């Protein structure tokens, strides 16, 4: 058995020890990195969406440069990949996938969900997105809405700016953000009240 | 339509084998193992010891059966270890010693 | 090669995977396919070389749009797939 085939837990422990001994990654550094990563969550992206729904100038900035728009709201983006924002309209729905691995807009949505990384999602999203959305999420697009699947294959990370649902007239940003789910910003679900 | 192409086994878009696989949409919390692997990769990147491109290439080089058998972060551990060994950032002797001391 | 938004391009029908260890970010399903350039996304170091810690030239990255039914011979008219593709994988169509 090659060393790479060692049980993963044992291999991680060995790697951890060797990296610590060499001053490459100490337990404190690892803990700090975990804490930083944990602080990113779909709530960040939801705040951006809510602001874009209420502030057309912010929407325009978000579509122009997603990372800058995120930073405006205090979301740390230094060293992060460029963030592209896909604007849904009454005629156009977007769906994000990474068929080659699991590229995900982590800086604004947090860790990618289990399903996003699955072979089933990666295979089906580009080829049968409507079937996948209906079966796995019960999502059926209204008549006349076209679907564009965006496969994250290179340096950009993509999030969807979904449509604001009816019945939210007069809501403030915080209330709007509270109804925006992780799946809405990938395109597997549509925001609703 | 199934294209009869020499696609690499990680290149899954439209792959017939996985089109009918049910997608588990339930939330799965990350384990301590997952988070630690994720953090180590990030640190290696920040310290310019290993890029995300090398991580991906390492994952893609995992033989097909193992690629699909291993969970997501177990693939990462295998890739990270392989690349660091390849680049001499760690040695096999060091890892074996750590495994034995384990 | 530089492509303007709106121009028709074809993805090279090339399979470097068959010639040795590589790291390719052009998915199999668009190789040989014709699409439309949506926009230039910027210049980035070639991941095919970064993956092997080789010196990596800056290459222009494009967002290219394909009609769903043209790729799979199934799917709804008007549906699309959009993919980030590096300049060296594209030819004028």
Explained architecture:
The complex is a heterotrimer of chains A (193), B (102) and C (93). By secondary structure, chain A is of the alpha/beta class. Chain A has 2 domains: 8-38, no CATH class; 42-185, Alpha-Beta Complex (Nitrile Hydratase, Chain A), CATH 3.90.330.10. Chain A is 42% helix and 11% strand. Chain A has 9 helices and 4 strands, in the order H-H-H-H-H-E-E-H-H-H-E-E-H. Chain A has helices at 8-21, 27-38, 42-54, 56-64, 66-72, 106-109, 119-127, 129-137, 173-177, and strands at 83-87, 92-97, 146-151, 157-161. In chain A, the strands form 2 sheets. In chain A, strands 1-4 form a two-stranded parallel ribbon. Chain A has a two-stranded parallel sheet with strand order 2-3. In chain A, helix 3 (42-54) crosses helix 4 (56-64) and helix 4 packs across helix 5 (66-72). Chain A is globular. In chain A, 45% of the residues are buried. The model of chain A has no long low-confidence stretch (mean pLDDT 97). With 102 residues, chain B is mostly helical. Chain B contains 6 helices and no strands. The mean pLDDT of chain B is 95. Chain C has 93 residues and is mainly β. Chain C has helices spanning 47-50, 68-72; strands spanning 8-11, 34-45, 58-67, 80-86, 90-92. In chain C, strands 4-3-2-1-5 form a 5-stranded antiparallel β-sheet. Chain C has one domain: SH3 type barrels (Roll). Helix content of chain C is 10%, strand content 39%. Classes of the chains: A alpha/beta (193), B mainly alpha (102), C mainly beta (93). The interface between A and B is large, with 54 and 56 residues. Strand 3 (146-151) of chain A pairs parallel with strand 4 (80-86) of chain C, so a sheet runs across the interface.
Topology:
The complex is a heterotrimer of chains A (193), B (102) and C (93).
Chain A: H1 8-21, H2 27-38, H3 42-54, H4 56-64, H5 66-72, E1 83-87, E2 92-97, H6 106-109, H7 119-127, H8 129-137, E3 146-151, E4 157-161, H9 173-177
Helix pairs in contact in A: 3-4, 4-5, 7-8
Chain B: H1 16-19, H2 32-46, H3 52-60, H4 64-69, H5 72-86, H6 92-101
Chain C: E1 8-11, E2 34-45, H1 47-50, E3 58-67, H2 68-72, E4 80-86, E5 90-92
Antiparallel strand pairs in C: 1-2, 1-5, 2-3, 3-4
